[in-house]
Specification:
about 180 residues; alpha+beta; elongated
């Protein structure tokens, strides 16, 4: 693309621009949740505020929320209480892992002030998901959260002298230096 070329065409993809009513948003996500529930043997559903808590086979749990005029789906997975024993080491590793979102499948680390927890969260426009993509999107986030929960707990429990071994190395995730994967 040449400099100065119009970029308006990037705003016409179709998703993220549809105005949904709250009832339509909830109904759509509830259909996806019911489908998930049928596969797993339970019946999750958004409450009146657009929130649903579900568990994963890994033992992790998540909160799914729907809000906004264009139907944004937000999922957050608690990883550990905040502050941990070594908050500086954990925060540093989270910031490094978050670089470009590659090691977090595009999700972000955050501290949930209401729950005093470190969470991994991700959002997507409702229009970008469908009945097949929604469970895959959730599973991808759960898998990343599981890797990071284990790595961050291990880092937090390690001795300060062991900080040279990053959480990436402890978890088996690739370490990154200057934007390149280190083998």
């Amino acid at each position: 693309m040449a400099y100065g070329a119009p970029v308006a065409r990037f705003h016409t993809r179709g998703w993220g621009v549809t105005a949904w009513t709250i009832d339509e948003q909830h109904a759509q996500v509830n259909r996806w949740l019911r489908r998930l529930g049928e596969l797993a043997g339970f019946a999750p559903e958004l409450d009146a505020e657009g929130l649903c808590a579900i568990g994963h086979r890994s033992g992790l749990e998540c909160a799914i929320e729907v809000f906004g005029p264009h139907g944004e789906v937000v999922v957050r997975v608690p990883l550990m209480p905040w502050p941990p024993a070594r908050p500086e080491a954990v925060a540093s590793q989270c910031l490094q892992a978050h670089f470009l979102g590659i090691d977090t499948v595009g999700a972000s680390f955050a501290i949930d002030p209401a729950g005093a927890e470190l969470v991994l969260w991700k959002s997507a426009p409702l229009d970008s998901l469908d009945a097949e993509r929604f469970p895959a999107w959730l599973d991808e986030l759960f898998e990343a959260a599981l890797r990071w929960r284990d790595a961050l707990w291990q880092l937090d429990a390690s001795e300060p002298a062991c900080e040279a071994a990053s959480a990436c190395e402890l978890s088996g995730l690739p370490a990154r230096r200057a934007g390149h994967v280190v083998a």
